Amino acid sequence: MESLSYHDAAALLAWQVELGVDECIMDAPVNRYETPAAAPKPKAAPQVPKKGAVRFVETQVDLPAMARAAAAQAADIAGLHAAIAGFGHCDLQKGARNLVFADGDPAARVMIVGDAPNREEDRAGTPFVGAEGALLDAMFAAIGMGRSTDVPVYATLALPWRTPQDRAPTGEEIAMMAPFLERHIALADPDVVVIMGNVAAQALIGKPGITRMRGTWAKVCGKPAMPMFPPAHLLRNPLAKREAWADLLDIQARLNA
Question: Do the beta carbons of residue 88 and residue 67 sit within 8 Å?
Answer without folding.
Answer: no
